[in-house]
Protein: Alpha/beta hydrolase family protein
Organism: Streptomyces pyxinicus
Amino acid sequence: MPTWQQLRDAKFTEYERAADGWSTVSNRSDAARTRADQEMAGPLRATQKGEAQTSAERDLTQLGRNYQYLHSECGLVRTALNALASELSAAQKKLKQALDDAADLEFTVNEDGSVEYPRSADLPLAPRTSSGTGVAKSGAPVPYLPGAGEADGDPNKGEAEDIAERISQAVTSATETDNRYAKILRELKAPDGLVVTDDMLLDEAHDMGDVQKTVGTYLGKDSIPHGRSPVANRTWWDGLTQEEREEYQTLYPAEIGALDGIPSVVRDSSNRIVLDESRVQVKSELDALGPEPSKTVVTAGGVMRNPEWTAWQAMGGGRLKGQLDGMKAIQARLDQTGIDGLPPAYLLGFDTKDNGHAIVANGNPDTADNTAVYVPGTKSKLAGAEGDIRRMTRVWKEANSMSVSQSTSTITWIGYDAPQSITPEAMEKHWAYEGAPKLNNFLDGLQTVQGGPDASHTTVIGHSYGSTTVGAASKASGHFAADDIVVAGSPGMLVGDASDLDVGKSHVWSEAASDDLVPLGGKVAHLGGYKWGVQTFHGLPYDAGYVQTVPSDEAFDAHRMHVDTSGHSGYWDEDKDSLKNQAAVVVGRYDKVQEDH
């Protein structure tokens, strides 16, 4: 245990300077990872072909992974050192206050921490006492109140006991703090070598949890906004020092990555840490279950379901495998910067809760002239992220080709819990109403970081049940943060007329293939809205009165865009008018939209 003299004389600025050094390494690693992803990947893919390209891409991916690991681990060391300095400084401050109090009272603090005090001149000396002084040590009965004294009533004794106890507590606190941080700092180390392995990433997740527990009083999770508006989130973020922002990013990446209203580059950096750690954790759990058994087996009685496969599924094998596939799809898009001219990707949200969620942007929406947010429908989840990401990649390509002088960002928003079955889940409205506040928060967050409603032309694209969620969001907000709404294969938007949506009917656009049965199914499920009017089909009336309408109905009064694709999922087929019409709305080129009349 250190002495009180050592605590008094300690210079904790040395820890802070060391933390600054680790901070520099962490920040430079994050910047290097960004350069590797955004500046090196494109030229490499444009100039290298064949095995040379494959090898270079593999090395570049590993390099980015290494930088990501350095960013996180060095950030944890920085935070631990800053927290250590903060806690030791607090103990030192308490000690110095006790020493100052002793000096003011003209008491003497001995080397062992005991306090020598003059006995009160107003009181007679105790029997067998040869001097007018006494010595107080720590450990006197609680409370240690000034003036408490013993039976002799000497107020100086109580003062001395209080000071001695405060000195002891300060030294004990410093010792406990030193031991606690020494343990965690010893664990924050990596093996030799230039390759970050899955085992190292698993250890990184463990380190993060340990540091969170250790520094809780210095940088706690409770101070991060939860359930507040994007504007409030941004206000909190702007009120932090740059050092505090960096510490929150690497210590609580999941919480920071989920905050609507803060810069996309911050969310992306944080969520990449979460993605890396989640991937190795899910892979570890999946590996522990063993290989996936065959789904069926052949028996004397014929082909039957394999009990081993059923057991594997019951233990979560299918769920884990699907989540891993989704994470691979996200990583693949993050690694595609520069391929076919694709812009950098930003991971604006990610978690594996329930069915899993992911928000992936093509291009930085914070600075985009045009922004599109795609809300997928039934069965959307992390496991199916590949298809949804591909759709918005295609929208970006078309939009970018239509308006090369403007910047465009297209976002796949798997940010709500969508129904996972056509019946009965997709026939229920609560999924839309529960998802609506999340969508509104995200859109408000975009508008906050972009600089207001006029900073970017924003289009929300809803597919299938996703359009129902868009309708619920528009009804709930009163200030839907979008300029246009595009729906494809909509089963209904919970309103009866396009004018009931916040963007106004002139900015509501609908696509429905002739063989897409979902709009009709939506009427069966009553996902549409009602209005007094006449239902027509190609101008011919077939129903009148208080009729239910969905966006593809003439009575809904939306722009009905020309569709040259078939089925419920073909609206994003390449080189089709269905896709081009969506892109035209995204960039505000309404004159290029082909409508059916």
Q: What stands out?
A: The longest helix spans residues 50-104. The chain has 16 helices and 15 strands. The radius of gyration is 32 Å. The CA atoms of residues 486 and 509 lie 5 Å apart.
